Amino acid sequence: MNRLMSLLLAAGYAMGQTVFLFACHQVRVRAAGGGPGLVLRDVRLFGLDLDGFSVRDTGQAQGWVPQLVFLVLCSGLMYAVLRSAPPDARPQLRTVLALLGAALLAAGVAELAGPALDPRSPLVLPTSGQWVGRAQVDGATALPEQYALWSCWLLMPSWTAAWLLRRWAPVRMLLGTADDAAGGEESPAAVCTVRRRRDVVCAGLLPMVLLAVAGGAVLRHTNVRHLDQSASITFDPELWLPYHPPALVERWSGVLYPALRLRPLDTERTAGWLATLAVCLVFLAVLAAALYAVVRWAAGRHPVRLFMNCWYATVLAAVAAALVESGLLQKAAPHEGAGTTALVRPFEAALGDAVRFGAVWGWATGACCLGAVWMMTRREARTRPKVQEEQLSHAE
After folding, report:
1. Within its chain, how far is the Cα of 177 from the centroid?
2. Please, which residues have CB within 8 angstroms of residue 106's CB and are 6 or more apart in sequence?
3. Which of 96, 224, 291, 374 is 20 to 30 A (C-alpha) from 368?
4. Residue 302 in contact with residue 336, Cβ under 8 Å?
5. Which one, of 20, 22, 19, 11, lies nearest residue 75 by Cα?
6. For residues 363-383, b (16+ Cβ closer than 10 Å) or e, as one string?
7. What is the pLDDT of residue 24?
8. pLDDT at residue 214 tops 60
9. Quick check: 255 and 125 in contact, CB under 8 A?
10. Which residues pair with 268 in a beta bridge?
11. pLDDT of residue 46
12. How wide is the angle at C-alpha 224 spanned by C-alphas 219 and 226, nearest 5°?
C-alpha cells in the first residue's frame, strides 16, 4: 500500500485510540457524578471489556505507561502491516489477520510492562501464580488483550471506505503506487516449492514442539490424584501438592502457556491430560497452517516481514488454543481457582496466558523460519553455478 495512505490509516487509528484510552474513564466518572466511593460497572461487548484498559490514574507510571507502550507499538506495527498490503488497498483476510496479530502482540508487551512498573511487584516477570493473584486482586485479567481484540477492527471502516472510493481522484492519488520501491527486497525462490515450504514450517514449529515436550509450567486444571501417604506419616507439603514445577520453570511460568504440554504428569488423571493434549495439538496445527500461509506469500517480501508475520502467526495460534481451552478444558477439568472466585473468567485467564506466551516466544518461530529460508538460499546459490556449468558443457 502507498506510504501516505498507510500513514493516514495508522495515524487515524492511533489518534482515535489515544482519545479513547486517556479520556473514556474520566468521562464516565464525570457522567456518573464522581465521588470517592464511586464504582463503575463493566461495559462489555461480546464478552470483552471495553474500557478496562483505559487510563485511570496518571499520577503513577503503571497507570498510563502500558497504554502508551500499546499505542506506540501497535501504531508502528499496523503501519508496517499496511505497507505490505496490496497496492489497490483492497482488504484481504491475510492482512486483516496480520493487523489482529500486531494488535495482540502490542497488547502482550503492554501487559508485561505493567508489573515491571508496579512498585508492589517484587519481580519484573511475575510467575503464573502471581498473575492469578493479581487478577483476583484487580478483579480482571487480560485487559490489554481484550481491548486489542475489539479495537483493532475500528481500522476497517476507514480502510473499506478508501477501497470503495478508490476510483475517486483524491483517493486514487493516495492509493498511487509511485513509491512501491519501498516494498522490500525480493525473496529467493527457496520457498516456491511445496517441499521447501514444508521444511520452513517444520523449522518454525521446532521451538514450540520443544516447549511442548518440556511441558507446561503449571497444571491448568485440578483433575489430579494426590499422592498416597498411607504407608508413612509425614507432613511434607509437596506430597500434597498436585504438581510442583522445577525452580527454573516456575520462574518463567508467567510467560509459558500452561496448556502447551504433550506429556502427562504423575498425578494427572486421564481426562485432564487428554483435554490438555487436545489444546496443545490445536495450537500446533493452527500454527502450522498459519506458517504455511505466511511462507506461501513470502515471495517478493522483505525478510523482516517474514519474521514478523511468523511472530503474528504464533500469537494468533495461541489465541485460537485459548478459545478451545476455555471450552474444552474447562468442561473436562476445571481451571485451578475456578471455584474460589468468579472474578477471573476462564477465557480471560487463558487469553492472557496465550498472548504473553506468543509475545515472548514468537520471535523464536520467526527466527527459525528465517534461518531455514536463509540456509535454502545459500544452498541454492552454491548449486546454481554447478548447474549452469553442466548446461554449458552439454551445449558445447
Report:
1. 31
2. 69, 70, 73, 74, 77, 148
3. 96
4. no
5. 11
6. bbbbbbbbebbeebbeeeeee
7. 81
8. yes
9. yes
10. 224
11. 78
12. 115
Q: Residue 188's beta-bridge partner residues?
A: none
Q: Which three cell numbers stand for residue 24?
A: 473514556
pLDDT at residue 340 in the model: 37
Rounded to 5 degrees, φ, ψ at 325 are: -65, -40
Are the C-beta atoms of residues 241 and 302 closer than 8 Å to each other?
no
Phi-psi region of 300 (alpha: psi -120 to 50; beta: other; left: phi over 0): left
Residue type for position 393: S
Is residue 145 within 8 Å of residue 351, measured between CB atoms?
yes
383: cell is 548449486
Question: Residue 315 to residues 103, 109, 257, 357: CA-CA distances in angstroms?
Answer: 10, 12, 11, 8
Closest CA to 117 of 75, 67, 51: 67
Give the pTM.
0.83
For residue 339, what are the β-bridge partners?
Answer: none
Q: Provide long-range contacts, Cβ within 8 A and 24+ apart, for 86-93.
A: 86/1, 87/1, 87/2, 87/175, 87/177, 87/180, 88/163, 88/166, 88/175, 89/1, 89/2, 89/5, 89/159, 89/162, 89/163, 89/166, 89/175, 90/163, 91/156, 91/159, 91/160, 91/163
Confidence category of residue 213, pLDDT binned at 50, 70, 90:
confident
